[in-house]
Amino acid sequence: MKIYRLHVLLSTDSRSILRGAFEVETKLKEEIIKKGLENEVQILRTGGWGIEEGVQLTVYPGGLVYVINNIDDIPYLVEEHFLKGRPVKKLMYEIDLPAKVKMDVPIEEEIMKKQTRIILRNVGLINPEDIKEYIAHDGYQALAHVLSTMTPEQVIAEVKASELLGRGGAGFPTGFKWELTAKALAKPKYIICNADEGEPGTFKDRVIMEGDPHSIIESMSIAGYAVGANKGFIYVRGEYDLSIDRLNLAIKQSKEIGLLGNNILGTNFDFDVEVRIGAGSYVCGEETALMESLEGKRGEPRSKPPYPSTEGLWAKPTVINNVETLANIPLIILKGAEWYRSLGVEGSRGTKVFTLFGDVNAKGVIEVPFGFTLKELIYEIGYGIKGGKNLKLVQLGGSSGSFITPDHLDVPIDWNSVRKIGAGQGSGAILVLDETRCVIDFLKNLLAFFNHESCGKCVPCRVGLPKALDLLNRVTSGNVEINELDFMENLANVMKNTSFCGLGQAAANQILESLKYFKSEFINHIETGYCPANKCGRL
Amino acid sequence: MGKLLLKINGNEIEVDPGLTVLQAAKTFGIDIPTLCHHDQLNPIGACRLCVVETKQGTLQPACTLPATQGLEVETESPRVVETRKFILNLLFAERNHYCMYCEVSGDCELQNMGYRYGIDHFAFSPYQNKFPTDFGHKYILLEHNRCILCRRCVRACSDLAGHYVLGMVNRGAHTMLSPDMESPLKASSCVSCGVCVQVCPTGSLSDKIGAYLGKTAEMTKTKSVCANCSMGCGILAFTKANHLIKIWGDWESSVNHGILCELGRFTPLYEKRKRVSHPIIRQEGKRELITYEDVIKKAALKLKEAKNPGGLISPKATNEALEVFNQLFSTSLKSKNTGLMENYNEKVIELSSDGCLEDILTAEAIVLYKVDPSTSHGVVASWVKRAVTNDAKLYIVTDDENSLSFYASEIFKTSEAGKLVNTLGNNNKVVVILNPQVESTDLETLEKVKAVFLPLYKSANSMGAVKQGLNSTFGKSDVSLIVASDSSGDSNLLASLKDIGYLIVISNFVSPLTERADLIIPSATWLETSGTITNLEGKTQIISSIIEAPEGVKTDKAIIEDLIKALG
Q: Radius of gyration over alpha carbons of chain B, in Å?
């Protein structure tokens, strides 16, 4: 084995690729050869760190993070750092604060100082296109352990004991879900990984799939063993080209060395995984609509009960888990439920991946144990609001999520605490809006999105959304009476109480919360004919 | 499992497990309003009109909510009523629901709900999105602007009739019904079974004739059995002033469960053949009208004088007509020279003694042997399609095109029929649907197959005729009586009539057969006849007269009885 002096980890998630990661790689290689460093410097492709800027290079030893925005900086970087050993301060990751925070300290100390990367343990560290790197980071150890030493019941017991809750948004206990499917009598059974990450502002699953695809496959195999399923499907949203490619590659690689297929690791356990691609429908992230779509039908939700655990895909018992949920499994098996329970807080164990975006300084994917407050997430990990402005509103959990006003910033983000203030953490998207944003403009955007994505099955959602949007357009065109706001509230209540699935209910929730927290802004628009944020045009 | 105890509107009721709240309430006589729900279809909970309030304060659709032990719901609480009104307001404002311009006003379930919940104005600006209309189909009007997207038609088309023509395209407010993913109905794979029209709650799908001829409440409904093929499908006929307006499938029929085909639902409404309206006699090459009494006298005289009187009867005639026909020849005329207008291979009849239509739905493998049910026995085609959707294998033996080829696992030429025996080897339940006129050589192969045999007889009462021993050919005769019903006689029959000295025809319609006849007696059609017919499974069912025959026109049975009387 070759020993290198420097290791350069190059982020190659889809976001970095769009920003020219491969061009950066070619240029780096050219320069390294020019300087005769090809035996000293190794370039490794990894997933993204979750920093929403440039192409990131992490250089070890030292763990310095560079952000390359201009390819012409590379010769200088190679000469200065790789050849002469002098870190280049001007290219280092920095955050746009009045007092610039420079990341000229190792990443573990700065970016990671508050984070705990369990789910994202391999993301940005290993080459997602090489199964050997995953194996070198304990990959497939958990599967081997499960197959050689544990019974399916023990696996389920361990997952139950970990108190892992589903990360798709509803927070259903994963172990319990597995147990229900294991106990169902019908056969065959299926494992589905819900990777139709459609929630606006949520891109955590993409980061996992692009950075650590094997962890999903390993976890699905473990789930398959636990419940008695031999077939798994990963339903990936169609826009995630790179995730699809990397998952397919990972499946191919694990099949080649017998970690998928028949008689896995010499046992009599067979498991196969197939990637299925969504066709661009938000509602197909809803588990029953996803199954309809997987079956080749129109993606519309089914009525529950029956639940997927007993009658799921093709009316057979099915476990359907989110990408992030599954990514927890190998570590729960390897380190044990007790270790897992030591992270997070009562009722919400482990860590949670959040996507922090909007008017915040450091946007990106972060992973912290449950129990952090929004204040810590926004002001410490996210380095505060852009331009030092005041916070107006946080939307937690994506477009289907809930509004959190600045009064609730000290509420810890865990299932119970969030529920207490009538909110939900949903998919883990944290959208930060500063004081210059207009809530009505924001709500209009949300409703237009839901209106576009409504499947058209149930009346309250299909008809209610256009009518609500109509009312809202009248608010911003100054053609509405104040008492019509009550009517809008009634409409939202009917939609919330009677919509078939979460889409209509969530859309209604956005209306209700806007009216609850920002009614004065509506009234202001109507009475003065003026949008304080100047977003709604001339009224 | 024992009974479940639940509380609806404060009443404790006991129901069997497995019911929805809607069904449970119905058993107790509580009417929960519905729109997307239809008793024959799987509930989907789309319209949300049937919401009920649970004890926990949630609103749940009764059509999909399972009735569970201890469940407490209110079906007309103030909150429920307000919510229903709101949903109706949304529905009325979605598309074109200006009732007074709609041809089904008065028969519309949406309109009825509007009255029930006092919707007297539009709460939202209505009809903001305009949709196309699709009026090109031969029988069906599809008006998207009156659609409430309940998907009854979609479910009926696929789950009940097995055709899978209708589906939904686009989404959200743009969702619309579409045949074959955006084809006009006319150009689609629609087979005109019309079940979509029957289940449509509004004026979105209506049939071209029935829609404009008044409200259902003003029509007379008659339960009967369709006599356009040998299936014996239950029908519900709607008439007004002795005119047939529309035909529905009878949901209660154990034969067709409400499904019909083009022949059953639409063909009788579009009857254009010219009726024989008066008895006619041909003398010296001239045709003259004659009274009924005279025609009977003349016919009886001719038959009496005949050396070798012969008789043919249509297998569409009722069992009662067949009986008196047999009586006429065996008792009055002492002749055995009788037969049917169609003939079947006796061996097929023997083979098929225990066949039953329901077998198709539960078969593991189905063989279509020289038969294409789509054109002649549409509901059999429906059953075959449904079976194939449920994973049954379909094998077709034919030398021609077959409209069910798309569904077939394998298609054999007649010469390769021998391969069937091996192909079918592993299947437990095989149904062979065959043409009853196949040759005995065909049967040599088929006899080796362990299967249930279902011959598709052409006419409504073929089995009844066979049971009365009428499945024989017609020998030479000097004076012949043909009871033709609506048949016009095929070329073979017409050719064989050349040598007959005197021909008496009892017929519904003017046809080549009546052209050849010396005496023509008008008879009532099956729509004007009561009696019994026996379907291809051997099930005897009652057909009722749906409309009255024109004045002076009698049924086959009455005419033959008059002949017997005249013969003394």
A: 28
Cα dihedral sign, B448-B453-B458-B464: positive
All residues of chain B having their beta carbon less than 8 Å from the beta carbon of residue A489 are none
Are the Cβ atoms of A454 and B48 closer than 8 angstroms? no
Q: How far is A451 from chain B (nearest CA, A)?
A: 6
What residues 157-216 of chain B have any CB closer than 8 A to a CB of chain A?
A: 167-168, 170-175
Polymer length in residues for chain A: 539
Lowest-confidence pick of A136-145, A519-528, B225-234: A519-528
pLDDT digits (tens, 9 = 90+) for A352-361: 999 999 998 8
Residue of B nearest to A496 (CA): B59
Which residue is closest to B85 within chain A, CA to CA? A494
State the smallest CA–CA distance between residue B87 and chain A in angstroms. Answer: 7
The whole-angstrom distance between A412's CA and the closest CA on chain B is 29
* Residue from B51, B4, B61 nearest B27 by CA: B4
Find residue A65's DSSP bridge partners: A58
Tell me the pLDDT band of B140, cut-offs 50, 70 and 90: very high
Residues B459-480: pLDDT tens digits?
Answer: 999 999 999 988 887 777 889 9
Give me A448's structure tokens: 């237009």
Residue B45 · residue A303 · CB < 8 Å: yes
The answer to whether residue B389 neighbours chain A at the CB level (below 8 Å) is: no
- Number of inter-chain CB pairs under 8 A, A vs B: 93
- Give yes or no for a contact between B465 and B313, defined as CB atoms under 8 angstroms apart: yes
DSSP string, A171-190: --BHHHHHHHHHH---SS-E
pLDDT tens-digit map of B63-77: 999 999 999 999 999
Residues 6+ apart with CB under 8 A from B286: none
Lowest-pLDDT range of A265-279, A281-295, B106-120, B344-358: B344-358
User: Cα–Cα distance between A377 and A407 in angstroms, integer?
Assistant: 15
DSSP string, B110-137: HHHHHHHTT--S-SS----S---EE--S
| pLDDT band of B447, cuts 50, 70, 90 | confident
Q: How confident is the model at residue A103 (pLDDT cuts 50, 70, 90)?
A: low
Which residues, numbered 257 to 316 in chain A, qualify as contacts with chain B under a Cβ-Cβ cut-off of 8 Å? 281, 298, 303, 305
- Sort out which chain A residues have CB atoms less than 8 A from B125's CB and list them: 470
Is there a contact between A218 and A140 (Cβ–Cβ < 8 Å)?
yes
Using a CB–CB cutoff of 8 Å, tell me whether B64 touches chain A: yes
**What are the tokens at B259?**
């499904």
A404 in helix, strand or coil? strand
* Mean local confidence (pLDDT), A227-249: 95
Judge whether A31 is closer than 8 Å to chain B, CB to CB: no
Above 80 in pLDDT, residue A445?
yes
The model's confidence at residue A137, banded by pLDDT at 50, 70 and 90, is very high
From the list A508, A422, A425, A522, the residue with the least C-alpha distance to A472 is A522
Nearest to A460 among B48, B66, B175 (CB): B48
Distance, CA of A522 to CA of A438 (rounded, Å): 10
Flag whether residue A134 sits within 8 Å of chain B, measured between CB atoms: no
Question: Closest-CA residue in chain B for A302?
Answer: B44
Return phi, psi of residue A115, to 5°: -90, 155
Using a CB-CB cut-off of 8 Å, the residues of chain B touching A292 are none
pLDDT of residue B56: 94
The beta-carbon neighbor of B172 closest among A298, A451, A467 is: A451
CB atoms within 10 A of CB A132: 12
Model-level pTM? 0.91
Region label for B509, one of left (φ > 0), alpha (ψ between -120 and 50) or beta (otherwise): beta
- Find the mean pLDDT for residues B196-222: 92
